[in-house]
Amino acid sequence: MVENTVNLIQAILAPGIMISACGLLLLGTNNKYSLVVNRIRALDEEKRKMLWNKELTDLNTKENKRLSNIQQQLQLFYSRIRFVRNAVFSYTTAVALFITTSLLIGLYKEQFALITFLLGMLFVLIGSLFMLREIIVGYKIVKIEVSSI
After folding, report:
1. pLDDT in tens, 75-115
2. How far apart are CA 124 and CA 97, in angstroms?
3. DSSP per residue, 100-140
4. By 3-state DSSP, what share of the chain in percent is helix, strand and coil, each rounded to 5?
5. Can you tell me whether residue 80 is helix, strand or coil?
6. Structural domain boundaries in the chain
7. Cα dist. 100→103, 116, 143 in Å?
8. Element (H, E) at 30
């Protein structure tokens, strides 16, 4: 009886490794989310300051180029923030599925536990794909910023 209990506890804790892994992914992704939001705010503030004292017709060529550059970056940042948001959603869903897996193992519902575990892994994969897309968009933003120098 004790051996079965120990095996059961070990099986229940196995998805905990994935919960910890997702926690680390969420930590990094939430940090990225904050950085992207702050960059959007900074660019928006720069745009407001440029337009605050001048009308669009009063801007010189250099200022118009910078304003265009900011607009391009903001559009890409909006895409980027959606990818990060979707990754956070995917990782959080994966955590919920891994917790459900542990509960189902404890209830001796092995078939359902396997399904929820595999779904959790699928959501980790989906979140990782969103982060890959975010990296690609981030690179495009850097290219726009550097091209204006």
Report:
1. 999 999 999 999 999 999 999 999 999 999 888 888 999 99
2. 10
3. HHHHHHHTT-HHHHHHHHHHHHHHHHHHHHHHHHHHHHHHH
4. 95, 0, 5
5. helix
6. 2-147
7. 5, 7, 43
8. helix 2-52
